Amino acid sequence: MIKLTDQILTETIRKRPLDSYKGTYGKVVLIGGNHNFGGAIIMASLATVYSGAGLTTTITDASNQTSLHSWLPEAMFADINDLEQLTQLVLSVDVIVIGPGLGTDAKALTVLQLVLKLVTLKQTLVIDGSAITLIANHRLIIPQTKYTVLTPHQMEWQRISGIAIKDQHPDQNWLVAHQLGATVVLKSHQTEIYTDTKIYQNTAGTPAQATGGMGDTLAGMVGGFCAQFANQDNAVLAAVFSHSAIANQLAQCQYVILPHQISQQIPQFMAKYAN
Ligand SMILES: NC(=O)C1=CN([C@@H]2O[C@H](COP(=O)(O)OP(=O)(O)OC[C@H]3O[C@@H](n4cnc5c(N)ncnc54)[C@H](OP(=O)(O)O)[C@@H]3O)[C@@H](O)[C@H]2O)[C@@H](O)CC1
Ligand SMILES: Nc1ncnc2c1ncn2[C@@H]1O[C@H](COP(=O)(O)OP(=O)(O)O)[C@@H](O)[C@H]1O
Ligand SMILES: [Mg+2]
């Protein structure tokens, strides 16, 4: 298992070319946030925008629109119940993040099935939270894409892989990740990343991160990094490491870290490593 260190940041985060514009840095949609879990998709969207994605649209329950814009006027909004608009938006982006706060009811299932049908070979798909649980519960097939990444916590991984938490060892995890055809970010206090060819273990992170919304924030960062950096494995690895390394910095003087505080630090953190 390869130890993931800050070396991945200098290998991945690039200085921005002068002759660039928002389109250079990728278009992302984030889909999730039902009436009860609006915070999840807002935290994920914050992380995407603060990671530097060029254009971000949040597709969520209409009841979340005002909160979204009070936190993040940079994000555009679309109503998750307008499936025609959702279809147009999904087809127009580089990266789709689906799952934070999506919920697991029939409406959420319909949206997920539609997105899995729409996604193309030119797009990156980030599957988190409720979307992982829905895929597991309904045995949905993960389609071919340019690149797919799953970001389960251990219980979500148990659901989708069939491997009980106590049996989640690298050999078994690796086999299932390959069967799923996706990079798997298996989150824990020592997150492991299963890419097509290698297994990495995160060396950063702190128990000060153990609070609701921390994984939603990581999903948004993965989306934002994948939108900007061509090497998708490196983008995922750099997002995972940055998320935890920022937490380590904050934990020097905080007992607990709120997920949105990670997002607020991303621009300064990335600037230190851009080359
Ligand atoms: N502010 C918001 O809107 C927020 C919205 N959120 C959204 O809620 C949705 C549901 O996501 P979820 O993770 O909260 O619930 P679920 O998938 O049922 O998993 C929990 C079950 O698994 C178990 N468990 C075992 N090991 C575990 C581990 N390592 N890490 C975590 N859990 C572990 C755990 O055991 P227990 O804690 O009971 O010991 C429990 O039985 C999802 O869409 C998410 O985005 C949240 O992000 C919160 C903030
Ligand atoms: N003790 C810990 N040490 C390091 N990282 C942790 C710890 N506890 C939780 N985390 C991190 O917090 C995130 C939790 O993700 P998840 O359970 O999906 O949260 P949520 O769904 O509430 O957003 C993961 O990135 C995980 O690695
Ligand atoms: Mg989660």
Automatic annotation (TrEMBL):
It catalyses: (6S)-NADHX + ADP = AMP + phosphate + NADH + H(+); (6S)-NADPHX + ADP = AMP + phosphate + NADPH + H(+). Its EC number is 4.2.1.136. Homotetramer. This is ADP-dependent (S)-NAD(P)H-hydrate dehydratase. It is an enzyme of class 4 (lyase). Belongs to the NnrD/CARKD family. (6S)-NADPHX binds at residues 40, 101, 153, 216. It comes from the Bacteria. AMP binds at residues 187-191, 215. One of its GO terms (biological process) is nicotinamide nucleotide metabolic process. Catalyzes the dehydration of the S-form of NAD(P)HX at the expense of ADP, which is converted to AMP. Together with NAD(P)HX epimerase, which catalyzes the epimerization of the S- and R-forms, the enzyme allows the repair of both epimers of NAD(P)HX, a damaged form of NAD(P)H that is a result of enzymatic or heat-dependent hydration. InterPro entries: Carbohydrate_kinase_pred_CS, CARKD, Ribokinase-like. Its cofactor is Mg(2+). Gene3D superfamilies: 3.40.1190.20.
